[in-house]
Design brief:
alpha+beta, five-stranded antiparallel β-sheet, 5 strands
């Protein structure tokens, strides 16, 4: 009789371990699907924005609920009995990072498994604007030096003014091309970080 009880107990323990592992995998799978949905939304935000404010607004304000509805959609998967919850999005103005939590809860009969992760979304325009500010500062310094040289040598002629105007037009066209290239260079995977995995 003692051996039968031990076998029964071992089977129950094994069954519970199997359920625990299975529920953990389901919960993590839901988070992986949400992660891919976040990447899609970040890609859309990059394509639709021209500066850090527009990128930020894609996730905040009136768009918050639309964003959450889009990322919590796991209906195309075979996962069942999963509840997803999202915290409010916090904005760290110092470095333009959007932060929020995801809680994935799986229920299987009387058993539950809950996993929480933190998410960071970097604003790509923040770093680009910093780089552009540095470049503009260097250009302004060079232009100031060039203007002093021109004033000192009295070589201002109409042909020279025309060439300066054409250079300015070329610079404007170059800036437009750089904006297009900036968007092409941005990889949404570099902008999204999921970290601090916890079972709660």
């Amino acid at each position: 009789m003692m051996c039968i009880n031990l076998i029964y107990t071992n089977n129950n323990i094994h069954s519970l371990d199997f359920k625990n592992i299975n529920m953990k995998e389901e919960s993590l799978s839901a988070i992986e699907i949400v992660y891919s949905n976040i990447l899609r939304e970040v890609k859309n935000a990059v394509e639709l924005s021209e500066n850090k404010e527009e990128f930020r607004e894609y996730f905040l304000g009136n768009n918050y609920y639309k964003f959450i509805n889009n990322i919590e959609d796991i209906s195309k998967s075979s996962l069942k009995n999963i509840t997803l919850k999202f915290s409010e999005i916090d904005l760290c103005l110092e470095n333009e990072i959007l932060q929020f939590d995801i809680v994935s809860k799986v229920k299987n009969e009387n058993y539950k498994k809950t996993i929480k992760v933190n998410v960071n979304i970097k604003n790509p325009w923040y770093t680009k604007e910093k780089d552009i500010e540095k470049e503009n500062e260097v250009k302004n310094n060079e232009e100031t030096k060039n203007n002093h040289t021109l004033e000192n040598t009295d070589l201002i002629q109409s042909d020279h003014i025309k060439s300066v105007e054409s250079i300015e037009i070329d610079n404007q066209n170059q800036e437009i091309l750089e904006d297009i290239n900036i968007k092409l260079d941005i990889d949404e995977k570099d902008l999204v970080t999921i970290y601090d995995y916890k079972e709660i």
